[in-house]
Design goal:
With about 150 residues, this protein is of the alpha/beta class. Helices cover about 45% and strands about 15% of the residues. Strand 4, helix 3 and strand 5 form a beta-alpha-beta unit.
Length: about 150
């Protein structure tokens, strides 16, 4: 099922370094599309996630090194120096949504946020749909066999 676009997405930015956090926040705010809140600690971000429900979180991999879990309840992009750091950090977020390089260009950062915000949710076929597809296959096989029989006879 496709998730409709969110009118003004809320982004929770969790970065401990003040200058890096301010730079990322500025990039996101310049888009004039997002509501952004920034936290420098996981505990503070978890509290905010309950009172200010975000649509997406950007979490610095450095904050996840100590094995602390980020239970934010929303898809999270990990800000990492590379794929190895991202892979180990993604284990500690409750809804990992991928990663983006800390030194990514502004367009790449915004692109990663947009992809995660507009990503379709996993489709699931109900039992009725599976039954209908099975019935159609049986009918199709029957028709093919009938055509073969009429061509031979």
């Amino acid at each position: 099922m496709y998730r409709p676009a969110i009118a003004r997405p809320r982004l929770l930015l969790v970065v401990s370094h003040p200058s890096v956090g301010a730079g990322l926040e500025t990039i996101l705010r310049l888009e004039r599309r997002y509501e952004v809140r920034r936290s420098s600690r996981l505990s503070e971000a978890t509290t905010w996630a309950q009172s200010w429900p975000a649509d997406l979180a950007l979490v610095d991999a450095l904050l996840l090194r100590g094995g602390d879990r980020a239970n934010l309840g929303v898809p999270s992009l990990v800000l990492a120096a590379g794929a190895t750091e991202a892979a180990s950090a993604e284990k500690y977020v409750d809804k990992p949504g991928g990663w983006v390089a800390k030194d990514a260009a502004a367009a790449d950062l915004v692109g990663a946020v947009e992809r995660l915000l507009t990503r379709p949710s996993e489709p699931s076929a109900g039992s009725l749909a599976v039954f209908a597809v099975g019935a159609l296959l049986v009918v199709l096989v029957g028709l093919v066999l009938y055509l073969i029989w009429t061509a031979v006879a």
